[in-house]
Amino acid sequence: MVAYNGNVAGRAELIRLLFIVSETLFTDSRIEPAQWPALKANTTWGSLPYLEVDGKTLGQSNAIIFYVSNQLGLGGEGEWNRAIVQSIVFATNDIKDGLSQLCVETPYSRYILAFYFVKLK
Fold first, then answer.
1. Percentage of the chain modeled with pLDDT above 70
2. pTM
3. How far is C-alpha 105 from the chain's CA centre?
4. CA 29 – CA 106 distance, rounded (Å)
5. Do residues 30 and 3 make contact, with C-beta atoms less than 8 angstroms apart?
6. Chain center to CA of 8
7. Spatial separation of the C-alpha atoms in residues 46 and 113, rounded to whole Å
8. How would you classify the pairing of strands 27-31 and 50-53?
């Protein structure tokens, strides 16, 4: 499996961590900003990250996370446990969105962060 992503920490970090925690070999292909314009048109959604498996590509970080976690046996057994894993992924997205909004602090970003920090105690 080849994980293509920007050469920065971001939405691909959880994908990398799944491979690392499961001790699964993968190619971590980090794309530099200068390379991106030439590659963008060939991606599924015109965005990073994307995953390549057996010549097929999968875009969107959550879809990649769910695919990889299930392939590596980390997605939970049964529908209920898979739903719990998905809820954790979606909660981390909310937290990341709240953190990114701190650059432009708003009442909403403060609310999101406070809400999830209380839940994560």
1. 82
2. 0.74
3. 24
4. 35
5. no
6. 13
7. 29
8. unpaired
